[in-house]
Design a protein that fits this description.
Chains A, B: Keywords: ATP-binding, Cytoplasm, Ligase, Nucleotide-binding, tRNA processing. 2 copies of one chain form a homodimer. Chain A is of the alpha/beta class. Chain A is built from 12 helices and 11 strands.
């Protein structure tokens, strides 16, 4: 069971100290309740932890009213004495080739923007305002789409540059903090629309579960914590198993084929990530690689046009194909 | 993704062959659609697999109408030429000391009855009619209550004497089978009442998820299959780790304390089960044992009044305390 904080504490209890002293932190600020709370919580620790805080606001320009949010962010940062970087979506140098939902494109754009601000300020972390309800909604989004164990462990508190200091705060705690500190925020109207999967979960699925058993939120947090632990153990064991079959010539095929499917899948994922290959983990991809390793008489197989799997009698390896631009 | 069958096949595809030829199988028969379908499906395989099939019906006597179900079972078994054992709840020699719900007590009573019939006929298996929707409901029951990874893997297709040949059938497939074969069944009115947690999940939670994304059922089955695989890997790894620390003097404490929490929890569960100790796995129980192993200066600790953990400097072991009846 993850611990919960009292609203009067300036920061949530954080055993792994995701907020390090003497660091520069970019805060993703939409102007909504969650990010307004996050910015104030971090500012309340600014002196004590010697933090440099920079707020970053991306104006999506999807609605006229988004100007109001940008204005609110300006005033707030001005009052707090915090630097604010604002950019309009149309000003962003980012080529979207993504076929996902508008919501997903928005997320990718924000990430691109935050990362460019982080680079500009040589920041140590980008703080996002995800909280316990976001975590629960993510669980159900992944459950509805079909998920691995890892998917059900939800959003991570720390994931590369990104940190999520409010991940254990409930929405109620955030609203209470805003109320007690008399803070203004902006409410995005698209947030309540059933057009988005996340909102359908928030508006229909979570209330149905809560009505069925009102301890549901507490128990889901506890379950997700147990799943995280199980996933962590699997990662640890996979790492050990991988070491036993790794040689300078590559992965020992006989040992690889003799190990558990879960370890095989995790080892292949690790190899693909280590090579810097972009891919979507799927059963189809796993089956394709296994077919090649088990049956194919060929000694090379290409995946995604940029990934080469090579094997000889005893070993296999994965490498990224680098395309050479003939115009150069 | 688990495979699905066509209704016209006499049996669901079953890679692990849970129905063994030349065996005696007790079929739990309530008279409801699921168990009527199961009985007929098994009877259709009777000759080919040389099965001896005995139906077992427990009359719960909770409602006057339960007599109708008993009568329906009698007629059906008579027509099929299947032996039927009927018992009334009041005739059962079973001392209930369970504080759970009426539903849970009913389940325990049925299990006791089926096991006594299995013993009487020296049966090899007890077949129950759980199907895919039961599996999904079980997932949410456990999620609502807070669950380990194992809990979320759901009901097992084979679990000791119990087998569940319809576990991959959807409710629709069962209803279609009954319709195509012109079979009568009894509908239990309590099955639709919101008084039971399972029914609240069936009537409110599942429809909300289905309305959010109609691929939900298919994807949940796929997710549960992935969780089962992950759980299986954890069991395999735990077993290997346990072997490395087991000696004739007991479990090596230093090695045990040095291993991952998930392995520690699983090893303790295995030790308790191996000793035949009845317990409810909980974080509290785990913490109590860990506190004793890590900190206590004592060399003995009693759990549940019938379980003794002993330790010396290097090793620990768990044993069941056997109470001696002084009147004997």
């Amino acid at each position: 069971m993850l611990s919960r904080r009292h609203v009067s504490d300036p920061l949530p209890p954080d055993p792994n100290s995701i907020i390090q002293p003497h660091t520069t932190i970019i805060v993703g600020l939409s102007g909504g309740p969650d990010s307004v709370c996050l910015l104030h919580v971090l500012c309340s620790q600014k002196k004590e932890l010697n933090l440099q805080i920079i707020a970053a606001h991306l104006d999506h320009e999807w609605q006229e009213s988004s100007k109001i949010a940008a204005e609110l962010c300006k005033n707030m940062c001005n009052n707090l004495g915090v630097d604010l970087v604002i950019k309009k979506l149309s000003e962003l140098e980012f080529d979207v080739k993504w076929n996902g939902s508008q919501e997903e494109v928005g997320r990718l754009m924000r990430r691109h923007f935050f990362q460019s601000v982080a680079q500009q300020y040589q920041a140590h972390a980008i703080a996002l305002a995800h909280h316990e309800q976001d975590q629960h909604e993510t669980f159900f989004i992944r459950l509805l789409r079909g998920s691995s164990l890892k998917g059900l462990t939800g959003i991570q508190k720390k994931d590369g540059l990104y940190i999520r200091p409010l991940l254990h705060w409930s929405k109620n705690q955030i609203m209470q903090y805003l109320h007690e500190n008399n803070l203004n925020y902006y409410t995005d109207q698209t947030n309540t629309s059933d057009a988005y999967l996340r909102n359908r979960i928030r508006n229909h699925v979570i209330p149905a579960l809560h009505a069925t058993d009102n301890r549901f939120e507490k128990n889901l947090t506890s379950t997700m914590s147990q799943l995280s632990l199980a996933h962590d153990f699997i990662e640890q064991q996979t790492c050990k198993i991988m070491q036993t079959m790794t040689t300078p010539q590559g992965i020992n095929i006989a040992l690889f084929l003799d190990t558990h499917t879960v370890a095989q899948q995790n080892i292949l994922l690790r190899l693909l990530i280590m090579c810097g290959i972009s891919f979507t983990p799927s059963q189809k991809l796993f089956n394709e690689i296994m077919r090649f390793l088990k049956k194919s008489s060929k000694n090379k197989h290409t995946l995604y046009q940029n990934c080469l799997i090579k094997k000889d009698k005893n070993y296999f390896s994965i490498e990224k194909l680098i395309k050479i631009d003939k115009n150069l």
